[in-house]
Write a structure and sequence with these properties.
TIM Barrel, 8 strands
Length: 220
Amino acid sequence: MQDQDNESRSLTIRDLARAKQSGRPISMVTAYDWWSGSLADSAGVDCVLVGDSLAMVVAGRETTLSATIEQMIYHGEIVSRAVQRAIVFVDLPFPLQHLGVGKAIESAARILQETGCQAIKLEGTSGQQDVIAGIVEAGIPVMAHVGLRPQAVHQLGGYRIQRDREQLLADATAAAAAGACGVVLECVPSKLAAEITAAIEIPTIGIGAGLDCDGQVLVL
């Protein structure tokens, strides 16, 4: 929730950095339509995420892999019109961050232009550091996503807790070095999530990662 002085203005990614510095918890929820976007915004959350989870939540699919850029743009545009104050993030759907830096920038720019959102979220390991850096250099804020990455569910062997300390630290550190405005930590042991949160300067947003992240995201 925001301080009263901030309730009348739109938030930016700089507010997320200030929240980490001040120790104020960051709130994020998903939304996929006008009603859920308006409800989230009126509740005073900091961030609204139009996630590729819509493939599961809205369309009833078993994974997020079927979400397309056209679907993300359709739902992202509706939510972006509904939200007046919170920061709207839209997921970059599979496999666009794996098709080269140029394709990722082109796709992220299209989402930004056609939805009116403020930032992109993308899943990836330290191997996507150049992709994050390229999108950020193009002027598009990026929220990284490490730990359990639903787009890699088959490679990871299912929806399981991720415990590889060195890999997770490397992934989060690489995202921060590339200029990401924050990083989602999903299904990471709480002690490790706390270590990562203390190790990087950008905010961490946890989902199934304990109470010591800089914020929490809830998938509705």
